[in-house]
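Students often ask why inverse folding is considered easier than folding. One informal answer: many sequences map to the same fold, so there is more than one right answer. In these notes we will look at a single instance of the problem. The structure comes first.
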């Protein structure tokens, strides 16, 4: 059997019955005795699911898909698959597309193993509360992976049952609305189980659950803005706040701050931040890096007079290579500045939530500079970096102002492309892109190019993906 089928066929799950952390949920009969001896603890199974946050998708491609596909970065380097993503000529043989599908379904498989085996484990040291927390954390992670799948492919298999015969090993694609429904169900379950807070921001807590719910309700085809607003409020109740110094967020001394909701932890040894070497010149030699900041982004910082975030995000430096878009010095990403690969990587932080709340209030036509208005939350983010309050005071103007603020605040954090897709501005924005001389880059973006094709290898192995 081909290996790519095993990524899906091995997926073990509890199905769609996740409702609450009840005794009924925890009272499961044995499924299998096939867990390897070294993995026969609930904590070790959960750690296996967390470790997937260090695979190549999350340590490189997450940024490529979110920023290179958008107007934040050029592909750089010499990888033809990444360059094709940058230039919008992706096809079903693209290596990044192939590996990202496999990584994400492997990640889901490991979450499903936790959800399937932990309820049955006989461990006297495992309390009911901790068992419930583990199940909640795994449910969040599964929702997170599916959120990335549905944003990239729109339709994809939704693995929610243990295969009982060969036919179930070749699932067809589920529509986006079904995937979003399951993501929300998993997150609602997780919210009833996980801790309120943790000093180690690599652990899933209620803040992460509600922050992701806000993003999910905003991203789905028919956004639910009141639910976005409510989810943002649930995050705020947990005591998060903006740190005073924006640049400190990206230093190793600023890790796990009051602004951080969820961040991948790196120590430079067992877990190393690959981005330090792949996109900055601080590590692994002065070779042509992936993900070079665009003229568009640099101009956006300059036009806004945003020196604080520009300097924290981008560094101009002389390099040994001839860049395709820039002369010397070349801008490089500065948000992962530790040369030993110890910089953590943000997945969710409070500034994102504040801007989502501003967006929700804008769509609900609550626009003013009060705690019930969009301007208030937009201004909180702007004033942190010394910018004046927004002059936008209509719904249309605030939509663009919030989009611009997210562009500058969250650059190189994997958000930009999905923001443009959510606001239905991706085609317009990307087709207007120019090089440093003012010449159109002629990406030729159309709506159907905003999602990835399924890899031909997967289609060849699973005929159900053609449906």
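Output (designed amino acids):
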């Amino acid at each position: 059997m081909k290996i790519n089928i095993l990524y899906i066929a091995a997926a073990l799950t509890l199905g769609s019955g996740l409702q609450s952390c009840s005794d009924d949920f925890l009272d499961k009969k044995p499924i299998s005795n096939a867990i390897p001896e070294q993995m026969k603890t609930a904590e070790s199974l959960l750690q296996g699911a967390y470790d997937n946050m260090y695979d190549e998708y999350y340590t490189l491609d997450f940024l490529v898909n979110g920023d290179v596909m958008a107007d934040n970065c050029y592909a750089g380097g010499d990888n033809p698959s990444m360059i094709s993503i940058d230039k919008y000529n992706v096809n079903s043989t693209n290596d990044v597309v192939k590996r990202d599908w496999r990584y994400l379904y492997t990640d889901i498989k490991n979450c499903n193993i936790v959800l399937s085996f932990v309820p049955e484990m006989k461990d006297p040291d495992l309390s009911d509360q901790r068992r419930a927390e583990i199940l909640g954390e795994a449910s969040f992670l599964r929702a997170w992976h599916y959120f990335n799948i549905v944003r990239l492919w729109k339709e994809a298999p939704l693995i929610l049952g243990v295969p009982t015969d060969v036919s179930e090993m070749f699932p067809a694609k589920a529509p986006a609305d079904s995937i979003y429904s399951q993501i929300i169900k998993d997150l609602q379950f997780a919210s009833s189980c996980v801790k309120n807070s943790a000093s180690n921001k690599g652990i899933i807590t209620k803040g992460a659950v509600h922050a992701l719910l806000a993003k999910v309700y905003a991203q789905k085809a028919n956004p639910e803005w009141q639910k976005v607003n409510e989810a943002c409020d649930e995050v705020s109740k947990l005591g998060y706040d903006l740190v005073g110094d924006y640049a400190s967020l990206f230093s190793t001394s600023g890790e796990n701050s009051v602004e951080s909701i969820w961040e991948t932890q790196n120590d430079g040894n067992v877990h190393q931040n690959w981005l330090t070497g792949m996109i900055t010149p601080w590590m692994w030699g002065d070779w042509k890096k992936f993900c070079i900041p665009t003229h568009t982004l640099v101009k956006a910082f300059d036009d806004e007079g945003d020196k604080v975030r520009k300097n924290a995000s981008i560094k101009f430096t002389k390099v040994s290579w001839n860049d395709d878009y820039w002369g010397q010095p070349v801008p490089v990403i500065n948000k992962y500045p530790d040369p030993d690969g110890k910089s953590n990587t943000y997945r969710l932080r409070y500034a994102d939530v504040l801007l989502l709340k501003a967006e929700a209030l804008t769509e609900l036509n609550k626009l003013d500079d009060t705690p019930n208005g969009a301007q208030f939350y937009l201004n909180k983010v702007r004033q942190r970096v010394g910018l004046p309050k927004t002059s936008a005071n209509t719904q249309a103007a605030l939509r663009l102002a919030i989009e611009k603020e997210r562009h500058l605040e969250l650059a190189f954090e994997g958000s930009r492309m999905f923001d443009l897709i959510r606001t239905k501005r991706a085609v317009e924005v990307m087709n207007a892109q120019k090089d440093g001389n003012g010449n159109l880059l002629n990406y030729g973006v159309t709506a159907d190019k905003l999602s990835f094709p399924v890899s031909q290898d997967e289609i060849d192995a699973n005929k159900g993906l053609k449906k």
